[in-house]
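USER: I would love a firmer grasp of how sequence relates to backbone shape in proteins. This is the protein in question:
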Amino acid sequence: MQSDEQIKLTLALTGGIASGKSTAANLLKTFIPELEFFDCDSEVRSLLDSDSATHEALLEEFGPEVITHEGRANRSYLRELTFARPTHRKALENILHPRVREECLARKADWFKSKMSSVFVADVPLLFENSFDFGYDHSVVVAVSRETQITRLKARNGFDDDLISRILSAQLSVEEKIKRASFVLWNEGPKRVLESQIRSLIHHLNTHE
C-alpha cells in the first residue's frame, strides 16, 4: 500500500469452505508488509482449547461429552452435533461468535491506535451468513465452484458426502457470496493466477483509497 499517506483500511476476507482463503491470506501478508491479520478460525480454536468461560457455556448447552479428558472442547463431537441439527449449530455460534467479534474489534482498535498508516484484514468464514460486522471497508470473497469444494474436502479432510452436503448447506452459495462481495478472487487456477488477482486488488486499493 502507499506509504506516504495516512491510509487506514479494513478488509473482510471470506469465502466458502475449501475455497483457498488461507492461501489468499498468506499472499496478502506477503504483498502488504504493514498488514495486521486476524483469523477468526484461529480465535475459535483458541476458545475451544483453553477458554474456561467458553467451556462452561459449552457444558451448559451440550453436556459433559463436549469436553475431552484433556480439558479441551471435543471438536469432532461438536462438528457432528452441530451439522446434524441447525438449532445446535445456532447455539454454538451464539457462544463463540460474540467472543470472536469482541477480540477482533479489540485487535483492530489496538492496531490502528499504534499505526499512522496501515491495513487490517480479518478472515471471517461466515461473514455474510452471520452479519459479522467489525467495521470493514470492503469484503473480499475467495471463490471456487461447488464441485471444487467437494473435491478438496474429500481429499483434504476425508469427509464423506453426507457431512460435506450438510456443511455446504450451512453456508451461502458461492453465487450469493459473489453478489455480496466488494471484490472477488476466483481460485480455480494455479497459484500464480491468484497472485495476479491479488496484485490487481492491491493496485486498485492503492489508487482508489
